[in-house]
């Protein structure tokens, strides 16, 4: 029995929302211990890293004084874990309606120049918990991260990476954290026993730092998710290379915090404050260096020896497709790096101070003449953000940029990329992967050429590193890992007859491919169905008589017809996906204004109407949703229609005047203090929750009744939130009832977590709620920190098979999935 290490990850609850990342690395911390029925397994004799607290309190009274339970949560206790103490967190979720068990620990922390936190965690049975979360309170807000235990019989070391956190409200920075909260969110009506130990800071001494612009996030900047995303992606690439770095926030940034930092990376900082810009200018003046992407304030461009250019959109499709070097300006720069950018922020060189290191090329290999990367004495700048396609060469590109100022990082990366950066699926290092895949190959009776290739590349990388040819060694190591991933895919076994689907969020399919090409790619690799997003709350991407038709349809044609033709041609099922209620920024302004004027747009609890969602209780909106879905089912020879967003956005909606009128009519009583009474009055609260659920269910029932009658062969399905007991109240999504009533033919809970134990637990619960209705779990590949992690996708597919679901649904079918993920799956796990 072994312990493992896991990086924390933000978990999204919707197929559209990006989320923060998780990197798993199995770390052997404990051997020979076994979990006890009445407590945790023994802890090692010492933590092995600096701890802030090992929870060696002098009895339960002292422990309970430090850790305050929230609401009706049970108090903490101390337990023995071998020769040492651990903190026992009893999650008393059975027989009550608490949404979560939570404990607050008042402790001042200064994490301004750290990577984050780490602690040990154990939970033998987390099936009653939908997710664990850690919150760090700072100023007027919180830094948040989800985490999981990825083994049920050993301690897990959890790493809370600052780059992985998301922000709620307005924190004041990492230097001023004053308390820690740990929460176990309800996943079922049962208790769970959890244990925590060895709480410490994750410190890394490094000359490299990554700056995350949290001032924009805290201010609800419109691009907050992208700021988080690109900082997390840059951090993951550095982790893959095995390079040390720290995470800095612009909320904490000062001259003091930049001492010892030779190079600072700006992954995406769209609107740095005047104060931060001045601090960075002073940093450059004192000899510091920047590696920046896309947006760099004009004053910093000047200080770096660049000149501001224009914002440039592509002149034609495929205009910005790859990046190629100009000479040997940057050592180790790859010969070509794929990157399909949708625009660039032009930066121009200044004679005598800077020069172009790489240029943008189009899909035909022709130079656009626009600079992609520029170099000066104190800055390397790329004219767009770093995208997550072409992962091997993206690592090389980033290393070439960073290594220009930190040449010692080439040697470090050459040696570490085969260890820290060589994880493949359940294997922590490249060498472990090669040995483990060899065992799997022997068990399966196969001898994939990819495994032999991986071993040869690994040997070549080691030889190059020993010879001091570090850029070449890093490149070969990346190729070796890619070959090992291919070998891992080659030794997997297929299971015929299962439902294998992809959601496709883009109504026009995969960028750069026709629907025919995209569907053929799925069929050739054993996928059996696609769920294309063809209609929203106020928009149709087909010839509709119910919804306003998107103007692109006039230019590019009826997208349902195009997708369906390809599906029929290649034998792939087509289940058309509708986003219910949510206009999603797709509807034209005239439609939204008309809906708002008619009182058909949702109103929040505070009386505002910020989100353009249609009110689910308005009869005309209900009919619009029903008519739109029935139109698709009856007009086209589709295999199915698919609900999504078939819910309220959250518990703060909808409280419009129409909802009040319709609710009061239903209960036959006037609500004196609207809307507060439906939350504070116990009797009214339950009736209000029933009312909300019924509005959503009316649409599901209405579609089911009409489609069963008018298009009886068409299947009805839904993408649903994963935690039915709480989601039926919070967002009115009573999908267990829909399964019981026979409204659905299959259901796809959005189980978007890279944590496999958590994924397994969720499926077990959901199969019970779905009853006799097939449950095809949603795998959130594109929402993970590493959306190219096909090995973990395979592990989750295997979990669905062990659970006997009969299928799975993957989010999302895009360029990376079409080019990399689907073909790799087709080599084994979905091979026909």
Structure description:
This protein starts with a strand and ends in a 6-residue tail after the last helix. The protein is of the alpha/beta class. Helix 3 packs across helix 6 (391-403) and helix 4 runs parallel beside helix 5 (298-304). The protein is globular, with a radius of gyration of 27 Å.
Write the layout of secondary structure elements.
Blueprint: E1 4-7, E2 24-25, H1 60-66, E3 67-69, E4 77-81, E5 84-91, E6 100-109, E7 116-122, E8 129-138, E9 140-147, E10 156-161, E11 166-170, E12 177-186, E13 192-202, E14 208-212, H2 214-218, H3 224-240, E15 246-249, E16 263-266, H4 274-285, E17 289-293, H5 298-304, E18 306-312, E19 322-325, E20 337-338, E21 344-349, E22 354-361, E23 367-376, E24 379-382, H6 391-403, H7 408-416, H8 430-444, H9 449-466, H10 470-490, E25 499-504, H11 515-524, E26 529-535, H12 551-556, H13 559-570, E27 573-579, H14 589-597, H15 619-635, E28 640-644, H16 657-667, H17 677-680, H18 682-710, E29 715-720, H19 724-730, H20 735-740, E30 746-751, H21 756-770, E31 778-779, H22 790-802, E32 807-811, H23 815-826
Parallel strand pairs: 1-10, 14-15, 14-16, 16-17, 17-24, 25-26, 25-32, 26-27, 27-28, 28-29, 29-30, 30-31, 31-32
Antiparallel strand pairs: 1-2, 3-6, 4-5, 5-13, 6-12, 7-10, 7-13, 8-9, 8-12, 9-11, 18-21, 19-20, 19-22, 22-23, 23-24
Helix pairs in contact: 3-6, 4-5, 6-7, 6-10, 7-10, 8-9, 8-10, 9-10, 11-13, 11-23, 15-18, 21-22
Tell me briefly what this model is.
Helix content is 33%, strand content 23%.
């Amino acid at each position: 029995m072994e312990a493992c290490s896991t990086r924390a990850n933000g978990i999204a609850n919707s197929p559209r929302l990006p989320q923060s990342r998780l990197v798993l690395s199995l770390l052997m911390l404990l051997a020979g211990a076994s979990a006890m029925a009445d407590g945790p397994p023994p802890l090692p004799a010492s933590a092995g890293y600096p701890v802030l607290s090992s929870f060696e309190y002098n009895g339960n009274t002292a422990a309970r004084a430090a850790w305050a339970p929230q609401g009706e949560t049970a108090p903490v206790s101390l337990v023995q874990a071998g020769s040492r103490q651990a903190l026992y967190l009893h999650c008393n979720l059975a027989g009550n309606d608490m949404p979560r068990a939570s404990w607050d620990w008042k402790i001042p922390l200064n994490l301004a120049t750290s990577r984050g936190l780490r602690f040990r965690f154990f939970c033998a049975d987390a099936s009653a918990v939908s997710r664990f979360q850690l919150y760090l309170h700072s100023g007027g807000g919180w830094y948040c991260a989800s985490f999981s235990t990825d083994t049920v019989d050993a301690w897990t070391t959890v790493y809370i990476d600052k780059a992985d956190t998301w922000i709620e409200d307005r924190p004041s920075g990492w230097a001023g954290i004053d308390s820690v909260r740990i929460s176990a969110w309800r996943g079922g009506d049962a208790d769970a026993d959890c244990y925590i130990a060895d709480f410490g800071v994750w410190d890394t001494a490094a000359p490299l730092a990554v700056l995350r612009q949290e001032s924009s996030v805290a201010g609800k900047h419109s691009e907050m998710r992208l700021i988080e995303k690109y900082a997390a992606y840059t951090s993951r690439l550095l982790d893959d290379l095995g390079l040390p770095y720290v995470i800095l926030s612009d909320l904490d940034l000062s001259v003091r915090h930049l001492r010892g930092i030779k190079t600072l990376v700006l992954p995406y900082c769209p609107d740095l404050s005047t104060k931060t810009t001045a601090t960075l200018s002073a940093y450059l003046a004192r000899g510091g260096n920047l590696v920046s992407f896309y947006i760099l304030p004009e004053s910093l461009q000047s200080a770096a020896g660049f000149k501001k250019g224009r914002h440039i959109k592509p002149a034609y499709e495929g205009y910005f497709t790859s990046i190629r070097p100009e000479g040997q300006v940057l050592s180790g720069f790859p010969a070509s790096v794929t990157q399909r950018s949708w625009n660039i922020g032009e930066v121009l060189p200044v004679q005598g101070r800077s020069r172009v290191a790489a240029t943008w090329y189009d899909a035909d290999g022709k130079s656009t003449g626009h600079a992609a990367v520029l170099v000066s004495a104190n800055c390397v700048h790329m004219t767009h953000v770093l995208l997550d396609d072409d992962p091997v060469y993206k690592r090389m590109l980033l290393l070439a940029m960073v290594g220009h100022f930190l040449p010692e990082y080439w040697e470090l990366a050459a040696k570490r990329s085969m260890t820290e950066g060589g994880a493949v699926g359940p294997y922590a290092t490249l060498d472990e992967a090669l040995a483990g895949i060899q065992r799997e190959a022997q068990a399966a009776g196969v001898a994939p050429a990819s495994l032999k290739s991986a071993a040869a590349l690994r040997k070549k990388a080691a030889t190059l590193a020993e010879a001091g040819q570090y850029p070449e060694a890093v490149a070969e190591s990346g190729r070796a890992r890619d070959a090992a991933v291919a070998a891992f895919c080659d030794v997997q076994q297929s299971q015929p007859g299962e439902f294998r689907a992809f959601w496709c969020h883009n109504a026009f399919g995969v960028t750069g491919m026709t629907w025919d090409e995209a569907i053929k790619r799925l069929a050739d690799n054993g996928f059996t169905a696609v769920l294309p997003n063809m209609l929203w709350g106020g928009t149709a991407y087909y010839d509709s008589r119910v919804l306003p038709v998107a103007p692109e349809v006039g230019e590019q044609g009826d997208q349902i017809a195009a997708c369906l033709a390809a599906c029929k041609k290649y034998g792939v099922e087509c289940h058309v996906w509708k986003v219910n209620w949510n206009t999603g920024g797709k509807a034209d302004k005239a439609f939204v204004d008309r809906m708002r004027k008619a009182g058909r747009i949702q109103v929040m609890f505070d009386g505002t109407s910020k989100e353009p969602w249609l009110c689910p209780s308005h009869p005309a909106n209900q009919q619009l949703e029903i008519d739109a879905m029935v139109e698709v089912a009856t007009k086209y020879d589709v295999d199915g229609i698919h609900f999504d967003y078939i819910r309220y956005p959250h518990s703060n909606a909808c409280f419009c005047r129409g909802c009040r009128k319709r609710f009061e009519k239903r209960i036959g009583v006037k609500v004196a203090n609207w809307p507060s009474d439906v939350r504070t009055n116990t009797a009214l609260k339950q009736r209000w929750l029933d009312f909300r659920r019924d509005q959503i269910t009316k649409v599901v029932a209405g579609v089911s009744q009409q489609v069963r009658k008018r298009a009886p062969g068409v299947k009805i399905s839904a993408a649903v939130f994963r935690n039915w007991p709480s989601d039926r109240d919070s967002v009115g999504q009573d999908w267990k009832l829909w399964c019981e009533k026979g409204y659905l033919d299959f259901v796809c809970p959005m189980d978007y977590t890279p944590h496999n134990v958590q994924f397994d637990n969720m499926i077990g619960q959901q199969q019970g709620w779905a009853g006799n209705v097939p449950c095809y779990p949603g795998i959130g590949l594109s929402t993970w920190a590493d959306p190219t992690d096909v090995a973990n996708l395979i592990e989750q597919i295997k979990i669905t098979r062990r659970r006997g679901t009969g299928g799975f649904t993957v989010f999302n079918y895009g360029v990376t999935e079409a080019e990399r993920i689907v073909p790799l799956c087709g080599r084994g796990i979905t091979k026909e």
